[in-house]
Amino acid sequence: MTLAKIVYASMTGNTEEISEIIEEKLQEAGAEVEREECSDVDEDFFEDADICIVATYTYGEGDLPFEFEDFFDELGEQDLDGKIYGVVGSGDKEYGEFYCKSAHDFVEEFEKTGAKKGAETVEIENNAEDEDIELLQKFVDDLMANV
For the Flavodoxin-like domain, which residue ranges apply (predicted)? Predict the structure, then answer.
């Protein structure tokens, strides 16, 4: 069975809700899923995963969530060769150029690990609406198709 692991950070609850939607969609697709808040995991969280997912928000002027900093700093040094990854970001378009920047920063770190990008990065403004849930379904479908 495919093991998907989701690590997330959430300030307002939006990103946590997004991670729950992804978890549900992955379970419906037949994957075993572990979903954890970032302050509850170590840098080797993805070690035994087939699919590695980060769900993050962006703080202020493109800043990574404080609680994700240590995990982020260690991610690029992990050997995730043979694994599939995907990133989802939540943000507010009022921040202009910084909208969902943390998600794209995570993509750059994943690229250093040897993991293969299994789905396009999903950007969601604030909380997930119907059209966002459709994007998350495609995200999950693409990840599962790449395992």
Answer: 4-144
